[in-house]
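Entry 14. Structure prediction run on the chain below.
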Amino acid sequence: MEFGRADDALVTVRDLAVEFATDHGWERVVNGVSFDVRRGETLGIVGESGSGKSVTCLAMTGLVPTPGGRVATGSVMRHKQSLKNNSYT
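Output returned:
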């Protein structure tokens, strides 16, 4: 996928990965999600049940449940500002 310039995006997600703790260690449930949303665009996230759509949105808004969940890698920027929070490692 080709991305435009990140400086003209309202929302930029890069290499997002989210993990949840299990009895066997950390289980990655979202891996490598990247996209831009520019003014006037609409983004639809589609996929099978359990594919990570809701967890991606939770990570974008800083609402990954803690303890037990974490954003393992990646970045989310809104209007050129990082959306870091306590669920980001």
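The first strand starts at residue 9 and ends at 22.
Filed with the rest of this week's runs.
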